[in-house]
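Input structure tokens:
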């Protein structure tokens, strides 16, 4: 099952776990209330996996590709890593399925606190449109992930503050209805 926790306030190496002390773990139900969806799949059979196909069909995740994030494999690595870790939102869902390696997705809760989600092989996650978030590799410095999308992908990141975009307003409405 996915591990998630509230973060400490330290600004040092983001690739460290940054668990708050005392520990404040976060469960799937709490993530769901933020609109974050999670599935555990068998990453060894991603090429032919009825479970993955079912999710893709139900949620219209028609588009996909596979990316590797590592110093060797990703062009403009340093620049990209910095970009991924800059707090931002998108106008669409961000969907990732970790096929190998690992990394951290950080998302803001309804009170604007950081929750860190540790993603490893077999973890698939959907972040809702309009949620502020960021991504970092961990000490492994390597992840291979499937990116999925509803239709033609748009990767534009709107760095915070992006409170004026419609997706943000819609997300805040969603949170308010859940409260
Ligand atoms: Fe993003």
């Amino acid at each position: 099952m996915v591990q998630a926790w509230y973060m400490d306030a330290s600004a040092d190496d983001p690739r460290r776990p940054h668990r708050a002390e005392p520990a404040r773990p976060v469960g799937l139900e709490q993530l769901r209330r933020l609109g974050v969806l999670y599935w555990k799949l068998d990453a060894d059979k991603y090429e032919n996996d009825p479970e993955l196909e079912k999710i893709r069909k139900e949620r219209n995740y028609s588009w996909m590709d596979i990316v590797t994030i590592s110093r060797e494999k990703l062009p403009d690595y340093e620049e990209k890593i910095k970009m991924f870790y800059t707090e931002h939102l998108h106008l669409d869902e961000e969907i990732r399925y970790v096929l190998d390696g690992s990394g951290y997705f950080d998302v803001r809760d309804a009170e604007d606190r950081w929750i860190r989600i540790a993603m490893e092989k077999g973890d698939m996650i959907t972040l809702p449109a309009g949620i502020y978030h960021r991504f970092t590799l961990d000490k492994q410095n390597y992840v291979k992930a499937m990116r999925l999308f509803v239709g033609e992908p748009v990767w534009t990141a709107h760095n915070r503050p992006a409170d004026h975009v419609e997706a943000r307003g819609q997300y805040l409405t969603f949170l308010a209805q859940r409260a």
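The pocket of fe (ii) ion is lined by residues 88, 90, 94, 133, 157 (CB under 6 Å). The helical segments are 28-33, 50-58, 77-84, 166-178.
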